[in-house]
Amino acid sequence: MRIVPDFLPDDHPLVALPMVPKWISVHDTGNPARGANAAMHGRYLRSQEAIDREVMWHFTVDDREIRQHLPLDRNGWHAGDGWDGPGNRQSIAIEICENSDGDRAAAEANAAMLVAHLVRTVPSLLPFPECVVQHNRWSGKNCPRVLRGRPDGWEGFIAMVRQYLQSEERQPVPIRDAAGQTLATGWLDGNTTVVPLRELAEALGLRVEWHQDERAVTLRWPGLA
Ligand SMILES: [Zn+2]
């Protein structure tokens, strides 16, 4: 999985304290404006407004990419539970974008993939699914509002994380390009290599659209209609 480094500068005015994360806190950005994607939120974190509001977080995820703004051993300020609260001081924060010009289902899938990756690679986290919590848990805020506002939205998100975890538990088969770069990771089912479509297609620069009602997928080549 590709994570785009978009780290805040060392001289950022908000303090990031040492952290040993136990939880992953899931947020929605609350910003449905066009263009309010991961790159824009990365810029926002550097703005005076964000500094005045004393907010920062670890990852922003949209339909195209995952951006990381803080290292996992430093805390952010996102949970609304105060200077010493476990949300702020012991949880990794993920913001899922809601920009109206983005594909929200794809953003949620990318976020679930990121959560699965963190569950597998951050040993200090509580066991899954206990470790994955809503911002709501820390402060009572209606966040992540899109997942919370949809019937079974949160349960569906956790189920998607579980699917990614299960697929990762199988014997991994790296799918590489000619330069040896890993594009995706699949697994063997008999003598067939099974690969998560979105992971491979997006690594190849294609866009994946899932149509829930038809249970069908459209692949789009950027630049073509
Ligand atoms: Zn939130």
Automatic annotation (TrEMBL):
N-acetylmuramoyl-L-alanine amidase domain: residues covered: 9-145
Keyword DNA-binding: no
Alphabetically ordered keywords of this record: Cell wall biogenesis/degradation, Competence, Hydrolase, Sporulation
Pfam entry (one): Amidase_2
Gene Ontology terms for molecular function: N-acetylmuramoyl-L-alanine amidase activity
Top-level lineage group: Bacteria
EC id: 3.5.1.28
Reaction equations catalysed: Hydrolyzes the link between N-acetylmuramoyl residues and L-amino acid residues in certain cell-wall glycopeptides
UniProt enzyme class: hydrolase
Annotated coiled-coil segments of the chain: none
Homology family: Belongs to the N-acetylmuramoyl-L-alanine amidase 2 family.
Name of the protein in question: N-acetylmuramoyl-L-alanine amidase
Organism of this sequence: Symbiobacterium thermophilum
Record lineage: Bacteria, Bacillati, Bacillota, Clostridia, Eubacteriales
